[in-house]
Amino acid sequence: MFRVEKARLALGALCISLWSGVVTPLRAADYPRDRSAREMIRKAIEEVYLKTQFDEAERILLGTIDACEYKCRLSTLARAYMYTGIVRGSGKLDQERAFEAFVGALKMDPGVELDALLATEETLATWERARASRPKAKSAPPEPPEPTEPSEPSEPPAASSSEREECPPGLPACVAEGDRCEDSVECKDGLSCSKLAGARFKTCNEALRCDDDAECGSGQCDRGVCEQPNSSGSPSGPVNWVGLHGAYDFAWLPETHGVCSVESDAAGDYACFVGDQPYTRDSSSTGSSATIYGGFAPATARVLLSLDRAFGVHWLAGLRAGFAFGRSNREFLPIHAELRGRYLFGESWLQPFASLGLGIAQVDTRMPVTVRDSAGDTEPTAAEAHAAFGRFFGSGGAGVLIAPSDNVRLDLSLSVAALFPAFGVALEPSAGVAVGL
To answer: Which has the closest alpha carbon to 83: 111, 104, 66?
Structure first.
C-alpha cells in the first residue's frame, strides 16, 4: 500500500509538471469543480479531521483530488494535498507519507502555504524538508486569480451549464437534494443527510435548524443544524420484532430391517399401527418383517410466534414458541420452545443471515410398510411404522429477510436440527412475517 500510494502521488505530480505549460492556459477558461472542491476540503478538515476521524478525512481529500484532477485550479489541488499531509503527519503520525503529500502539493503550486495551526512540530519539520527537497524550476504560467464572492449578494448568480452538470462520483459536497447519501459531508450546501419518515435509505434533505438537541429527535444539534447519528453499529429500523411463522419438519430415517417384528417392538425404535390400532406380531409368525429403505420422511408441522430484538445492525436474538401437530399415534410432545440468535449480512432490503438455536421439541413421523404374517401369506398387511425423535434439540441454519418496508420483514429460513436423547436429524424449512415495534 505504501508503494502504491507513493507511485500515485509521484505520477500525479509528474503529470502536472510535464503538462503545466499546455494545460494551465486551457484551465483558465473554466473551473466547474473549484467551489465544490474547496467546500469539500473545508468539511474534511473542520467536520471530520477535527473529530479525529483521520482515515475518513484522508479518504475525502484523496477522493476530491481524483474527482477534480483536471477540473480545478492547481492551487485548489495543492491545498488538498497539503491537508492530506497534515492528516497523515499530525493525525496518523506517518511522516513519510506526509512528506510525499507535501512534495505533491509544492509541485502543483510552489506558493501553497502550510496551515501551521493544525501542524505538529514533527509535521512542520516534514514540511520544511519537502520544501528543501524541491529543485529549482522554471516558473509555470500564472493561473488566473480565484474569483471572490460578494460579501452581501442581493441575489445568487445564475449557475452556468458547466456548474449545473452532475458532480463526479465520490466527490463530497455535491450530492443533490433527494439523492441517496451516507453522511452530511456528501451533501450540497444547506442540505443534511437524514432519513425521512417511511424512507428506507438516507438522502440529502434541507437541513433542520435547531438550538439544542431536544429539537432534533434522535439526532443532535451541530452548529445550528440537526444531524442524524451515524448508523454504523446501530440498527437503522425498529429494535423489537414480533412475528408469526409456519414450519414443517422432514425427519431423516436410516435404512432399517426387521421393522414391526417382535424384536423391533421391544427395542422401541418403531411402533407399528394398522389404522388407529397398534399392530402386534405373534412370536410364532414365519413371515418376513418390513423394511424401511431410508431417506427424508414428512414429519411434524408447527405454528410459531417469535419475539426478536436487534443488537446493533447485524445481530438479532430472541425466542420462538408455539405448537406442533404430530403425525404419530405414539405419545407426543406438542410444545415448541426455542432460543435463537441470528447474524445478518448487509444492511439492504435483502439480508441473508445465519442462525443458531437451542430448545425443546419433538419430531414424529410415519412410513407406510408391508408386513407378511407367514411365509405363504398372499395378502400382506398394510401398516404404518411410527418413529419419534427428541425432546431436546440444537439447530443451525441460514435464510433471508426481505423488507418491503421499514417495519415489515418476510422471514424465510432452512435449518437442520439434531434431536436427543432419542437421537434423530430433521430438516425444517419455515416461512413467516415479522412486524417492527
So the answer is: 104
